[in-house]
Fold Carboxy-S-adenosyl-L-methionine synthase.
Amino acid sequence: MSKKDNIYADQLEQVESFNFDQKVVEVFPDMIKRSVPGYTAIIDGIGQLAKKYTQANSSVYDLGCSLGAATLSIREAVNDESCQIIAVDNSTAMIERCKLIQSGYNFSMPVEMVEADINDLDFKNASFVVLNFTLQFLPREQRQTLLNNIYQGLNPGGALVLSEKLTMSSEELDASIINIHHDFKKQNGYSDMEIAQKRAALENVLIPDTREQHYQRFENAGFKQFDTWFQHYNFASFIAVK
C-alpha cells in the first residue's frame, strides 16, 4: 500500500537533490498521482499503443521503469508469451519493489527486471520501447545518443513512446503553465512549501526540453514518423515509429 507523499511537508534546513531512493519508493504512486497531470491516461495509453505496435517474438523495453506501471499496462494489453518485457532502472530500491509488484500478477508475457544504466544497454529485436518521464533525468549530452541506440535496435514498424515534462518555447507562456501546474498540485493537497522544496530538489536534476528539441532528436535518430499523442499542461507524451 502506497504511503502519502509528505517528503517535503516539513521545512528542511537543506534541500538535497532529488533521487529515487527508498523514501521516494514508499510514496511514489501517491507522488506521481498528485504531481503529474494525466499520468493515469498516459499509462493506459501506453498499453493500447503497445497492443498496436508490439510484434510477436520480439522484446519490449521499459526504460526507467520505476515501480513498473507501464510494464503492467503493457503486459495486460499485449499478454503475448512469445514476447518479453525488459524493465530497466538504475535505482536498487525501485527495482526491488518493482520485482515484488510484478510477482503479484500472472500474465503470460514474461518480464525481466534489470538494474542498470539505460545508456549501457544493447537494444536488440525491439518492437516497442518506453521512456516514461525518464529522458528528462539524463544529462542533455546523453539524450541524442540514447535515442540513436534505441532507433538502431528497433525492428521496422517498431515504436518508441517518450513522455516528458516540457518547457514552452515562450518564456511568458512557460511561466503561466508552470503556475497552473503548481495550482494543480495545490488542489491535490501539496502546500506552497512542499511545492517550493520539491522544485528546489529537482533543480539541475530534472531538466526539461521543448517539444521542438524532442522532435529534432527523433529526426536526427532517423525516425520519419513522430507526433504528440497526449498532453496535459506541460506534460506530454510522444510516439515515434521506425
About this structure: The radius of gyration is 18 Å. The first helix runs from residue 22 to 35. Residues 39-167+206-241 form a domain with the Rossmann fold fold (CATH 3.40.50.150).
